[in-house]
Design brief:
There is one protein chain. With 110 residues, this protein is mainly beta. The chain is built from no helices and eleven strands. The strands form two sheets. Strands 2, 4, 5, 6, 9, 10 and 11 form a seven-stranded mixed beta sheet that branches. Strand 5 and strand 6 form a beta hairpin. It is globular. The chain starts with a strand and ends with a strand. 32% of the residues are buried.
Length: 110
């Protein structure tokens, strides 16, 4: 079972990025998928979650700016991030059923 995250990078404040996480070796369609992030010196926090029925949840810090979605045919979950702020700078991890992806760095800076 593996989760491969990609799509991070450097973006200016107010910009957008889309992260992708490809899952392999698991029955993707029955899993809850989630994105977490960990900023320097801080703990890991939930950013977005999506169920197999496409129900989503977000913390207030990203609600209205981030959107999680999934494509079961491609075994991939996405995180569309808009209106990025410097405080969104972190390593972003995808997660499902006890498995963590390797993380992708998002840096928001001018």
């Amino acid at each position: 079972v593996q989760l491969q995250a990609s799509g991070g990078g450097l973006v200016q404040p107010g910009g957008s990025l889309r992260l992708s996480c490809a899952a392999s070796g698991m029955p993707f369609s029955i899993n809850i998928m989630a994105w977490y992030r960990q900023a320097p010196g801080k703990g890991r926090e939930l950013v977005a979650g999506i169920t197999r029925n496409d129900k989503t949840n977000y913390p207030d810090s990203v609600k209205g700016r981030f959107t999680i979605s999934r494509d079961n045919a491609k075994n991939t979950v996405y995180l569309q991030m808009t209106g990025l702020k410097p405080e969104d700078t972190a390593v972003y991890y995808c997660y499902s059923e006890g498995v963590w992806g390797q993380g992708t760095l998002v840096t928001v800076s001018s």
